[in-house]
Amino acid sequence: MKKIILLLAILISVTINAQTDAENIKKIYDTSLSNGMSYQWLDYLSNQIGGRLSGSLNAERAVEYTKEQLEELGLDKVWLQPVMVPKWVRGNPEFAYIETAPGETINVNICALGGSVSTPALGVKANVVEVQGIDELKALDRKDVEGKIVFFNREMNETLINTFNAYGGCVDQRYAGAMEAGKMGAVGVIVRSMTLAQDDYPHTGSMTYGDLPNNQRIASAAISTNDADKLSGMLKIDSDIKFYFKQNCKQLKDVLSYNVIGEITGSEYPNEYIVVGGHLDSWDIGDGSHDDGAGVVQSMDVLRMFKETGIKPKRTLRVVLFMNEENGLRGGKKYAAEAKRKGENHIFALESDSGGFTPRGFSFDCSDANFEQILSWKPLFKPYLIHYFEKGGSGADVGPLKADSNVLAGLRPDSQRYFDHHHAASDTFDAVNKRELELGAATMTSLVYLIDKYGINPIRINQQLKD
After folding, report:
1. Which of 25, 68, 196, 405 is most buried, judged by most C-beta within 10 A?
2. Looking at the structure, do residues 181 and 57 belong to the same domain, yes or no?
3. Any catalytic annotation for residue 308?
4. Which of 180, 325, 351, 438 is catalytic?
5. What is the CA radius of gyration of the chain?
6. Where does residue 211 rank: exposed (0-12), middle (13-18), buried (19+ CB within 10 A)?
7. Does residue 67 sit in the same domain as residue 109?
8. Is residue 437 in some structural domain?
C-alpha cells in the first residue's frame, strides 16, 4: 500500500512539473519571439563594429559593447577576465593569378589563412602540384614538390547530411598543409575553400606550422571553389602553367584582451555553475554574424530572458563571451583554468557556435545516466520542432571545462547553409534570419531552465520505488 501511495505521489508530482515546465518553456519562446534582443544586439555587433579578429581594435570595441549591454540587464555581476591573445594581421588585400603563358594571366580570388606568413615582397610564382590531401602529398617524392606551389583540392563530401562531418573530413589540409608542404621544399600553398557552395568567396581559417623552422615556413592561402575548379581544370590541360600570389600578413606579439562574463547568482545552489556562451572574436573578412556573433547574442539573451520571464534560477547562471576561439582558443582555456583554480563546480556548459540558423536540437557530452534524463525532456521541445538529442561533441570553448561529473552541450542548428558563410566575406548580418536567431535563443534558454531546475545525475523514479 505504501508503495502504491508513493507511486501515485510521484506520478502526480511528475504531471504537475511537466505542466509547469511546458508553461515556462512556452513563456520563454513567446518572450524570445515577441521581445527578443538577440537580433538587435547582433545588428550593432555586425554593422557598427564588424569583424573582430583577436587583438584588433574591433575586438576591443566588441568587449566594451557587450560588457555595457550585460550591465544594462541588471545582472548580479559583470566583469572582464584578462587573457593574452595572438595578434595576426592580414595587411593589404591579397592578389593572385594563373599564368597560362608569359603575359597571359587570369585573376583568381584568394585570402590568406590565419597565422600564415607573408609571401616575399614581390610575391611568389611557380608551377603547381595538385593533391587531394596531406596523405597524397606525403606519397610524392621531394623532387616533385620542391620549388612548386602545392594546391590542396580535396572537396567537402557533398553526400554527408551533417555538413560538419564533411568539413571535418578535409579541414586538415587547411590547418597543416603548409607545414607538410614546407618540409618538402614547396614555396607556397593554395587550399580549396572549406565550403559546399560554388562561388567566388575564398574562406579563411586557422593554420599551423608546428615546430617548422622559420626558413621552411611558406605562405598559405585559400582559393574560392570556382577558382579551384578552374585551376584544376587548367592543370589537366597544361601541367606547366604557373600560379602567382602575393600577401602581406604577419604575426605580431601577443596582446591583452578579455573574456566578457555576466552572472545571475543562484537562489539555492549558488556554488553550482551553469555556463552558456559563444566566442566574441571572428575572422576579419566578413562581420562574423554567424560565426560567432549569433552565439554571442543568443547566450546574452538567455540570461536576459530569465530576468524578463521572472524565472529565478536555483543555480548560478553565467554567460561567457570567449575571446580567441578562431586562432588559439586562449579564452576558453583561460576560463577553465581560472574555474579550476577557484574550485568552481561547473555542472553544465552550453555553447552556440554553429550559426544562427533554425535550431534542431543539441549534442551532449555526458554520462548515460544524464543523457537518459535529458531525453525525458524531449517531449517538452516537440511543439517547437526540436528533435535532435544525440550524444556527441559540445563546443571548442566549453570543452576545457569537461569533467566526469558534468554535462557539456552544443546547440545544433540546421547546418546546410552554414559553410556557405563560414570564415568568408559572405558571413554578414543580412545572412541571418531574425526569427531563426530568436528560436535558437529560446531553445538554449529552455534547456538551461531544465538543467537549472533538476540539476544533473538525478535520482530515477524506478530507483525511488525500489527504495
Report:
1. 25
2. no
3. no
4. 325
5. 25
6. exposed
7. no
8. yes
